[in-house]
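Standup notes
- DV: blocked on the single-chain target, sequence here:
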Amino acid sequence: MKLEHTALNVKDPKAQAKWMVTNLGLKLVRDLGEPTFITFVADEHGALLELYANPKAEIPDYSKISPYTLHLAFTTDNLSDAKSNLIAAGATDTGIAETLSTGDEYIFLRDPWGLCLQLIKRVKPLV
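- DV (later): unblocked, structure below
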């Protein structure tokens, strides 16, 4: 089997997907429209994220979920520039910044809807 995608039930999938395309370098792969606005975005390697608003389930208050419980991670070569650009686009800083024993450095931000984003600068890529 092969992992295809991760899905998140969110309040405004179209707006959140558009923000991710504009600010995180993702591309829109599929937009199914009403009633649940199922929207797929992907990175350049094909990692898929599904955003939708499904009334069959509760939409979590992502702003209250610990970054250590749930986050989307994005690699970058320049944490400072990436952080500044995302904050200018409406993200907020959680104040969490750490360096791991591997030398990898990361910070946590929240997108305008409260979803946690990890920006990580790795010494050696995972894959």
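- Follow-up: The domain at 5-52 is CATH 3.30.720.120 (Signal recognition particle alu RNA binding heterodimer, srp9/1).
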